[in-house]
């Protein structure tokens, strides 16, 4: 591939912050503020399993019976891309991220991971992919970059190709309205949204549908799904068994997420001490575990199609009734190439 070069060690360099590893390039350029160490990789793999539970093990939501090329933006641990490659062995799957996360030795032969900056224009050819999957990119895409990012996705999709986006809105909600602004979960949420601005848009999840439509996608659909922060069933309230199972499984992910997403932006952006951050995280975990609050994060899922293509690629009524459902950015100069690893 003439557009790729071996990965530069610049992207492998890490810095230690309160005993966690962060990509030096990402934090120094305001690109991405979550850790990239083994603990975080394990959490990302676990969260992929939670998404699978929420989406009934469906990895691809639009009707694409025989995809030939798929791009994942913000591939992280590589779980989604590897699983898609296993399900579609004749499809070329490429995962992009700003950090060269370690990948398994037994990956399918049809999946490749590259390092690139998605805050700069895409270097992929036009009309190339059948599907672009973008998940958990709100923490990586610059605030002013979103419409350009959407336009790049539209350009690299073939006519009739699909974009599929999944984002969590990290503003803790209560299914029964019992969480108030004084609760630790809400304090954590407000601090998080404040701490990543002005670099990132903490409300990007709410704007996916509008941005996709503005970029030129058609048949755009958005769904809101609750991601329970723990099991809600306490023997006294009516609880959906499925939500309870998801919440019970999600508890471990949330405990780690509340710390990993907060550590750098709260201490560096808001000036909090590590002790204060960990105290707030401990209180937020306790509330997340309390079934009386029925706490959840809203998950927004949005799909849209690039105009054109054959009729069989159009969105079907059966799909409408079923729909359930990154590289974090960086900055390069002109003529950059993606790095393979």
UniProtKB/TrEMBL annotation:
Keywords: Methyltransferase, Transferase. Residues 308-341 are annotated as: Disordered. One of its GO terms (molecular function) is methyltransferase activity. The keyword Isomerase does not apply. One of its GO terms (biological process) is methylation. Transmembrane segments: none annotated. InterPro entries: SAM-dependent_MTases_sf. Pfam families: Methyltransf_23 (PF13489). The keyword Phosphoprotein does not apply. Belongs to the methyltransferase superfamily. LaeA methyltransferase family. This is S-adenosyl-L-methionine-dependent methyltransferase.
């Amino acid at each position: 591939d003439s557009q790729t070069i071996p990965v530069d060690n610049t992207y492998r360099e890490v810095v230690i912050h309160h005993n966690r590893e962060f990509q030096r390039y990402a934090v120094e350029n305001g690109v991405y503020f979550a850790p990239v160490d083994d603990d975080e990789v394990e959490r990302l793999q676990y969260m992929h399993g939670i998404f699978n539970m929420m989406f009934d093990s469906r990895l691809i939501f639009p009707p694409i019976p025989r995809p030939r090329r798929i791009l994942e933006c913000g591939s992280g641990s590589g779980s989604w891309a590897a699983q898609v490659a296993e399900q579609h062995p004749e499809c070329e799957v490429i995962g992009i991220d700003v950090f060269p996360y370690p990948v398994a030795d037994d990956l399918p032969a049809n999946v490749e991971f590259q390092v690139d900056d998605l805050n700069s224009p895409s270097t992929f050819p036009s009309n190339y992919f059948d599907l672009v999957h973008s998940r958990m990119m709100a923490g990586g895409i610059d605030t002013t970059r979103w419409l350009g990012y959407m336009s790049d996705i539209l350009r690299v999709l073939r006519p009739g190709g699909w974009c599929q986006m999944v984002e969590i809105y990290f503003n803790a909600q209560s299914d029964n309205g019992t969480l108030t602004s004084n609760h630790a979960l809400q304090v954590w949420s407000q601090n998080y949204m404040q701490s990543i601005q002005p670099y990132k848009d903490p409300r990007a999840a709410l704007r996916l549908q509008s941005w996709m439509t503005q970029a030129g996608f058609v048949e755009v659909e958005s769904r809101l799904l609750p991601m329970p922060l723990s099991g809600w069933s306490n023997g006294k309230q009516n609880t959906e068994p499925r939500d309870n199972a998801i919440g019970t499984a999600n508890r471990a992910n949330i405990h780690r997420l509340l710390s990993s997403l907060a550590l750098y932006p709260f201490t560096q952006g808001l000036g909090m001490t590590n002790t204060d951050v960990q105290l707030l995280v401990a209180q937020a975990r306790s509330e997340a575990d309390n079934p009386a609050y029925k706490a959840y994060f809203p998950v927004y899922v949005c799909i849209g199609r690039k105009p054109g293509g054959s009729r069989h690629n159009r969105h079907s009524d059966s799909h409408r009734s079923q729909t359930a459902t990154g590289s974090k950015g960086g900055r390069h100069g002109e003529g950059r190439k993606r790095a393979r690893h």
